[in-house]
Every structure is written in structure tokens, then in C-alpha cells.
TrEMBL record:
It comes from Antarctobacter heliothermus. This is Transcriptional regulatory protein SrrA. Gene3D superfamilies: 3.40.50.2300. The gene is srrA. Pfam families: Response_reg. It comes from the Bacteria.
Length: 330
């Protein structure tokens, strides 16, 4: 596993390769600045499997570097770990929004750092989340030959649509939640957004059209919650998990109304049949579990439960509304 570490500190540039060498890793390459790192990564001679970035560097900090790396085609989905002394919630959020997959504090042990890189390695080989690139969103002449329901991903697969603001990998969203400091959790809200009847949308649409649905739903969530303190991930089966900080997302019916209104506006402005009748349900927001070791599993389980409960309520209300409308015509 080839690793590039970027840090302006000479001590760190000496220490990091030693840590990995004692754990059996190949020699670690180092760069002393963001500009040097971009020069190395843009050179086609070497391909790195994992990047370890410091945040506090002159001229270009690690967060800006991370965002620039994600714009390099060869490094769109390469694991990026932030290694830093910064432990405030704003910096942690900014790092994950820029495309980081994990975040570790410099006060952590060498064992912790090596362990996180091993996790990144497993993530790289398991490919738990498919990254959908611009070619998957192309509605040009080639898209006309695509068949509805024929996708290279399953309905249950988690997906990352490239270029969608504030949408990150599920793996990264879990790590973000884990790394948030305990004192910040009281201002954090998690909630789920479920696309209604995802099976129908999956089988009735081509890949570009289905990706359009995901992109517009993510846009509707951002527009309705209306905060830069939002990160979300598409978990598969039509479900988005969302984390908002320092804002109350609102009452589920109001959230649903806002997102669905956004989707209706997109539908009216677009010629795409895929956007017709796309609607969502929103689960009641929760505060995350405080115990760091079980925070992700317990919190995400509750998000799913609240979302499922809201979906069942919506499924009950719709037939009643249809009956009332029919009765009105009698």
C-alpha cells in the first residue's frame, strides 16, 4: 500500500514514515506542502493508495488540498485521512465536506494511525460505495441506447454522486459523527430522508435518470434545511442519512413539504420524465448517541427506525387521501 504523507513539520515528516515502517508498510513518501503534494500526485509515474494530510499548513491548508485532490480523476475515491491537532467541530466538518474519509488527532497513538490506514485499505478493496461520475449522468446520444432498470449498481448499494455538494460517502459520514467532540453533540441533529417507492424509480429509469433523481433529492434537502452545517450520505434503497449542526431541521411534515416542493419545481423546469412523481418522507430528527464507541451504529439505527415509521404513516395517509378525492367526485 503506497502512502503519501503531507505535513509542513519536519518532525512529522520524519516520524510518520518510521511509524509505518515498524508496522511493515512500504516506504512512505512525504511532501512538505500542498503545492508539492499536488505536483507529485499530478505526475503519472506514481499512484498512491492512501493519503495522510496535515491541516494546518502555510499557503494551502490540508482542507483546501483535500478538495483539490478530489478534483484529480485518479484520486476521486482514494482514501484520505486528516492527521491534525485541530479538534473543533467546524474544522472536522470542513474536512469531511472537502472529501476526507477519516480524521485522526495527532495526540493519538501510532497504533491508532496504523489501524485507521488498515481500515482505509479494507475500504479501498471492498469498494462498499460506488462513485458515480459524470459519465453516469450523461443524457447525450449514448444514453438513448441505455435500458431502464439496467444499472451497474444494485438498489441497495450506497452511492456517491460526484460533484453533489455536501454529499459524502456513508463510511465518511460515520467517521464524521464519531469524531465530533462530545460537547458539540447537543447541537447535532440526525434525520433520514426516504424516496417513496424506490423500487419503481430504480427499474423504470436509466442510470442517468436515476442519478438525476438522487442529485435533485440531495439538492432539495440542502435547499430546505438551508444551512452550510449539513452533511449527508446516500445509503441505498432510496435513503439519505443527514447530519445538521447548530440548526433545528424542523418538523418532518414541513421538511417533506419543502423538499417535495423543490422536486416539483425541478420537475416543472425539466423535460426528464424521471422526475415525475418523485416524493420523499422524512424521519423525526434525533440527537446522536453520546457513547463514541457505539455512536454510529445506535444513532443510525434510530434514524432508520424513525424514517421507516414516517414512511408507514405516509403510506397510510395516501390511500385515505385518494379515497377522499374519489368521494369528492361522486
Amino acid at each position: 500500500m503506497r502512502i503519501l504523507a503531507v505535513d509542513d513539520s519536519p518532525i512529522s515528516r520524519d516520524l510518520i514514515p518510521m511509524i509505518f515502517a515498524t508496522s511493515g508498510f512500504p516506504p512512505v513518501h512525504v511532501a512538505e506542502s500542498g503545492h508539492m503534494a499536488l505536483s507529485i500526485l499530478s505526475n503519472g509515474d506514481e499512484q498512491f493508495d492512501c493519503l495522510v494530510l496535515d491541516i494546518e499548513m502555510p499557503e494551502m491548508d490540508g482542507i483546501e488540498l483535500c478538495a483539490r485532490i478530489r478534483r484529480l480523476p485518479r484520486y476521486r475515491d482514494t482514501p484520505i485521512i486528516m492527521l491534525t491537532a485541530r479538534d473543533d467541530a467546524d474544522t472536522i466538518e470542513a474536512a469531511f465536506a472537502a472529501g476526507a474519509n477519516d480524521y485522526i488527532f495527532k495526540r493519538s497513538t501510532a497504533k491508532d494511525l496504523v489501524g485507521r490506514v488498515h481500515v482505509a485499505k479494507r475500504m479501498l478493496h471492498r469498494n462498499d460505495c460506488m462513485v458515480l461520475q459524470n459519465m453516469d449522468r450523461d443524457h447525450g446520444p449514448q444514453a438513448r441506447s441505455l435500458r431502464s432498470g439496467r444499472h451497474k449498481f444494485a438498489l441497495s448499494d450506497s452511492l456517491l454522486v460526484e460533484g453533489v455538494e455536501r454529499l459524502i460517502l456513508p463510511f465518511s459520514l460515520g467517521n464524521y459523527l464519531t469524531q465530533l467532540p462530545s460537547e458539540a453533540l447537543s447541537d447535532v441533529r440526525l434525520f433520514g430522508v426516504q424516496i417513496e417507492d424506490p423500487i419503481r424509480h430504480y427499474y423504470d429509469n436509466t442510470t442517468p435518470d436515476f442519478v438525476d433523481i438522487l442529485e435533485r433529492c440531495a439538492g432539495g434537502i440542502r435547499a430546505t434545511v438551508n444551512t452550510e452545517r449539513l452533511l449527508m450520505a446516500y445509503q441505498g434503497n432510496g435513503a439519505f442519512y443527514c447530519i445538521a449542526r447548530n440548526i433545528d431541521p424542523g418538523y418532518p411534515p414541513e421538511l417533506e413539504a419543502g423538499i417535495n416542493s423543490y422536486l416539483e419545481t425541478c420537475e416543472n423546469a425539466s423535460a426528464l420524465a424521471a422526475l415525475q412523481s418523485v416524493r420523499v418522507c422524512v424521519g423525526t430528527p434525533i440527537t446522536p448517541n453520546a457513547r463514541r464507541g457505539q455512536r454510529v451504529r445506535l444513532s443510525f439505527d434510530r434514524v432508520q427506525e424513525r424514517m421507516d415509521a414516517r414512511t408507514k404513516i405516509g403510506a397510510t395517509i395516501q390511500p385515505l387521501q385518494s379515497e377522499q378525492e374519489t368521494a369528492g367526485w361522486r
